[in-house]
């Protein structure tokens, strides 16, 4: 079942990119050049830039973009002098990475892979993992945190973005609570059909125990956290926090 739903999601990502998905639009040449002059920011969640002090020294840092294709963050890290690897299951997201790397003439290792499987990297390979919101497309996230711990060097940093589940409660206009948590289409045939029909992909709500508790169980040490809202909609208007970003370290 694992590979089946993740394969379905990868096709949804490809479709969304073709339709102009916000998280599938690669950065421009101008933004890349600004980053080369140390004028840059990136997001793990919809709106708030990640604090610069969360990062390691970027020059020659080995960085993994985990489910982070799309040509948005890896080009900026490359412009800052990092040695980047990106893994994503979407062909279209990785195509964007290839196109930006070719346009700006930098090297990047590009891997198509399902991150619900063990990562195809050696132990202690990376100084930093950048993992924007994507756990919502994975049913069991503890193995992801365990793999992050394994491939990080000692002192390595995991930067992760994730939702708190609130978005799954509401109807499309965010005015009525319609769905119970946890949200799991693999355990609810009606919800599965609705997810496919409405072009949502197969998504899952997760608890703070799974998201932050899972990082701690994997052996990581939490060093900082912030909340964020949706980029638009009623919950955003009411300033309801629906996302978290965390910084954790492998001691």
Summarize the structure.
This protein has 251 residues and is α/β, with parallel strands linked by helices. The chain is built from 8 helices and 7 strands. It has helices at 2-18, 29-36, 74-79, 91-104, 142-151, 189-197, 208-217, 234-237, and strands spanning 62-66, 83-88, 109-112, 126-131, 152-163, 221-228, 243-249.
Structural overview:
The two termini are 35 Å apart. Helix 5 packs parallel to helix 7. Strand 2, helix 4 and strand 3 form a beta-alpha-beta unit. 31% of the residues lie in helices and 19% in strands. With 251 residues, it is of the alpha/beta class. The longest helix is centred in the first third of the chain and has 17 residues. The mean pLDDT is 97. It has a seven-stranded mixed beta sheet, with helices on both faces.
Q: Which key terms come to mind for this protein?
A:
251 residues; alpha/beta; 7-stranded mixed sheet
The Rg value, from CA coordinates, equals: 17 Å
Helix vs. strand class: alpha/beta
What amount of the residues lies in strands?
Answer: 15-25%
- How many H/I helices? 8
Major sheet, described briefly?
7 strands, mixed
């Amino acid at each position: 079942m694992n590979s089946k739903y993740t394969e379905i999601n990868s096709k949804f990502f490809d479709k969304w990119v073709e339709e102009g998905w916000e998280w599938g639009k690669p950065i421009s040449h101008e933004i890349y050049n600004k980053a080369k002059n140390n004028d840059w920011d990136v997001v793990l969640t919809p709106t708030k830039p990640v604090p610069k002090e969360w990062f390691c020294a970027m020059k020659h840092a080995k960085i993994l973009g985990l489910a982070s294709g799309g040509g948005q963050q890896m080009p900026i890290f490359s412009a800052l002098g990092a040695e980047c690897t990106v893994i994503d299951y979407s062909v279209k997201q990785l195509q964007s990475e290839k196109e930006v790397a070719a346009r700006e003439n930098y090297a990047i290792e590009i891997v198509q892979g399902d991150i619900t499987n063990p990562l195809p990297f050696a132990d202690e390979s990376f100084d930093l993992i950048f993992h924007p919101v994507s756990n919502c497309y994975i049913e069991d996230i503890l193995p992801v945190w365990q793999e992050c711990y394994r491939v990080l060097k000692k002192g390595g940093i995991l930067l992760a973005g994730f939702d708190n589940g609130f978005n799954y409660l509401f109807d499309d206009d965010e005015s009525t609570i319609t769905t119970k948590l946890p949200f799991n289409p693999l355990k609810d045939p009606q919800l599965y059909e609705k997810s496919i029909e409405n072009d949502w992909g197969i998504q899952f709500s997760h608890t703070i125990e799974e998201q932050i508790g899972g990082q701690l169980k994997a052996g990581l040490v939490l060093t900082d956290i912030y909340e964020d809202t949706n980029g638009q909609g009623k919950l955003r208007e009411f300033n309801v926090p629906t996302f978290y970003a965390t910084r954790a370290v492998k001691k």
